[in-house]
Structures are given as C-alpha cells and as structure tokens.
Amino acid sequence: MRILVLCATLLGLFTATSTAQTAKQWTAARALMVETDVASAGIKNPAVLAVMRSTPRHEFMPPDVRPYAYVDMALPIGEHQTITTPFIVAWMTQQLDPQPNERVLEVGTGSGYQAAILAGLVKEVYTIEIVEVLAERAAKTFKRLKYQNIQSKVGDGYQGWAEHAPFDKIIVTCSPEKVPKPLVDQLREGGRLIIPLGERYQQTLFVMRKEDGKLVTESREPTFFVPMTGKAETLRAVQSGEPLSPIINGDFEQMLEPGKPVAWYYLRQASIQEGGREGSPQCIAFRNRVPGRNAQALQPIGVDGRKVSELVVDLWLKPTNVEAGASDEFGAKVSVSFFDEDRAPVGMQVMGPWTGTFDWQRRSAHLKVPPNARVGIVALGLLGATGDLSCDQISVRMANPRSASK
C-alpha cells in the first residue's frame, strides 16, 4: 500500500543526528504530506494549507509513533484515543470556515493538534478533554510551543463550556449518537457546528448551521471517530458487545448524497457507477493512473479477536487493465487492518491482488484475526495499482469463533 511506502520514505528522512538537520527533515516531511495527502485530496483554502504546513504535528504525538507523524493516518496517543488523520483535520477545518476574529470551542482535545491548527486561524480556541492524562499532556504541549490563544480544561465535552459561550463555531472530534443540547445552546445564532454522529463503527460527519435556534444540516460525509464518553456514553442506545459488526451498504445502493455512499469513507479516486454485477443498479468504481497512489474506499468494523479467529470476505469484482506495479505492496485488493483497544495496529490481512482484465467474478478469502484485535478497517480498491476496478456486493462474516481455551 502507498501508505507503507510513504512511511518508509519518511522514516528515511530521520537519520541525521543534529537538531538543525532533524528540524529541516520534519519541515520537509510536513510539506510533502500537505502536498500529497491534503492539497491533492481537495483542500483548497490557502489559510488552512498554510497552517497545516507550519504546525508541527510530531510535537503532539508520543515518541513511539512520532516517526509516522507526517503519514496521513490516525495514530494511537494512549488512553484508547487517536490523533486524527491530517486530511480529516484539514477537511474539518476548511468546512468550519474559521475567521480571524472568531472564538471556537473544540470538544475532544486529544493530542491538541486540532486546537493548534485552529489557533493559527482564529482569535481564541477553547478546548475540552474528558481524559485527564491527555488534557494535561496537551496543556503542557500548548505551553511548550507558546500558544497564547488556547484555553484548555478537563471536563465532559457533552456539557460544553458555558462560561465562555456563545461560540462562533464548535468542532467535535469524538462521536456521540446525537448532538448534545448544551452545544446547541452555546452556539451563536448563525454559527457553524461540525460533529460526527452515529454508532461506534458507523458514523456520519455533519456540518450544521444554527438558524432560529435550531440546527440545519449543510452537508454530510461518512466518517469514523472514537466514541464520545461521559454523559454521551450513558445516553447511547446501541452498546458494544457483538463479536463482529457487519459491513454496511456492501452493494453501494444507499447514498447520503450523490456520490457519497453510506458507511464508506475516505474515498479516493472512487465513484459510484450505474450497472453493477448481474444487473445490480450500481457499484463502486476505482481508477488510478499513477503507480503508488491509492484509489480506495474504507469502512470500519468492530471485530473482537477474543471471540473471532477468522473472517470470510466475499465480493464481486471486475478489473480492467489493472497492473500491480513494481512493489508487492501495490495491488487491486481488499485489506483488513486490525487495531487493539488502544487503536494501535496489530496486523493486516490481504485478499488479492488481482491483475489484468476480466468480467465480473466472485472472490472469497479467509483472513486470520489477531487475538488482541478490537477494530478492523476494511480498505477496498486499487491500493497503489493502476487501471480500473469495479466492485460490488462485498460482505464480511465470521468464519470461526475463537476457542475459549485459546
């Protein structure tokens, strides 16, 4: 996969021993990330691109994952939390449309990186984190990096920060099932709210505006964030516990909006096309002409490796002039990346790759599940390969329960 190649490229940048050289390498890696994973993926706001280039993401990360700071991926920061991918940070910031004179509330400080991005664009940032360890770590980072316009505290973000309301904008970086009412009350009339809503593994990122005291939806995108805890957790109607959550919208028939299939997120060089397998109304199609670049769609699933030892992945596919490229990491395939309860990676299983040209065919594979897996990210498409690939009717089911004695 391209992400692995980019990891290797960036790791190669960090071999110098002097502080000056290391600083230059961080800057070069950050510029490369913004160019390849942010600007080229659709972020156009010049102010957002500028602050992404200048904000040191590596300073907000634990040492063990710092070498991957400028790879476009979520990474564990401890306490079952992750730092959001750079593209999603940039996308949410662009959608928020921050202005220099505004006051913004962030719910879910996490590493502090999103707050730092906002601090370079607005007058004041107020950020709340329910996990005390993370809140204190982020506060120390803000102080060390001399951010003067960020105020942070430990607290349940469900309740907002009433003392400093109203806010011009509110951004939520964890997912409740419904919009917390205190946040609606604390948003000024005409203000904008960005929030991921939904269940643990199936969420939608809403961009909303407050009009006449109520929220009006402006746009929606499938997404995947950590759940909101605290009061939001006690109000959650759907609790966890299933050994495996199913793939949603595997036939790509359900749409949030034109071009946006329900449940599938992080689409790259992908489109919904008419005419799927054997008269199916539509399918997903990928096209890539640059070796190493991903054309993909992702979907998270809950998978408890204590109870599930093996998955069966099944789908229909139709490749056209697909070439895998020079590296074995590139291919038209399905991959499932597994993560533990701290969202740290614990392994990957791959189905494929497929090359050449053939009409619709069914493919099925058994994939092993690590015992410490709790979440899986299903990636479908041309993962670094070139050509065209159509896919339809993908499903994931449990093959074997894990023996209680293991």
Polypeptide structure, described:
The chain has helices at residues 2-11, 19-39, 46-54, 86-96, 113-119, 132-144, 181-186, 231-234, and strands at residues 75-78, 81-83, 103-107, 124-129, 150-154, 167-172, 187-198, 203-211, 214-223, 255-257, 260-261, 265-268, 270-274, 282-288, 294-302, 308-323, 331-339, 345-354, 361-368, 375-383, 386-401. The protein is of the alpha+beta class and 406 residues long. It has two domains: 2-234, 3-Layer(aba) Sandwich (Rossmann fold), CATH 3.40.50; 255-401, Sandwich (Jelly Rolls). The protein has a seven-stranded mixed β-sheet. Strands 12-15-20-17-18 form a five-stranded antiparallel β-sheet, with no helix packed on it. A five-stranded antiparallel β-sheet has the order 13-14-21-16-19, with no helix packed on it. A hairpin with a 2-residue loop joins strand 1 (75-78) and strand 2.
The CATH topology of the largest domain: Rossmann fold
Strand content: 35-45%
Global geometry:
globular
Summarize the main sheet: 7 strands, mixed
Question: What keywords describe this structure?
Answer:
alpha+beta; Rossmann fold; 406 residues; 8 helices; globular; 7-stranded mixed beta sheet; Jelly Rolls; 5-stranded antiparallel beta sheet; disordered N terminus
What's a concise summary of this model?
Helices cover 20% and strands 39% of the residues.
Topology:
Blueprint: H1 2-11, H2 19-39, H3 46-54, E1 75-78, E2 81-83, H4 86-96, E3 103-107, H5 113-119, E4 124-129, H6 132-144, E5 150-154, E6 167-172, H7 181-186, E7 187-198, E8 203-211, E9 214-223, H8 231-234, E10 255-257, E11 260-261, E12 265-268, E13 270-274, E14 282-288, E15 294-302, E16 308-323, E17 331-339, E18 345-354, E19 361-368, E20 375-383, E21 386-401
Parallel strand pairs: 3-4, 3-6, 4-5, 6-7
Antiparallel strand pairs: 1-2, 7-8, 8-9, 10-11, 12-15, 13-14, 14-21, 15-20, 16-19, 16-21, 17-18, 17-20
Helix pairs in contact: 2-3, 2-4
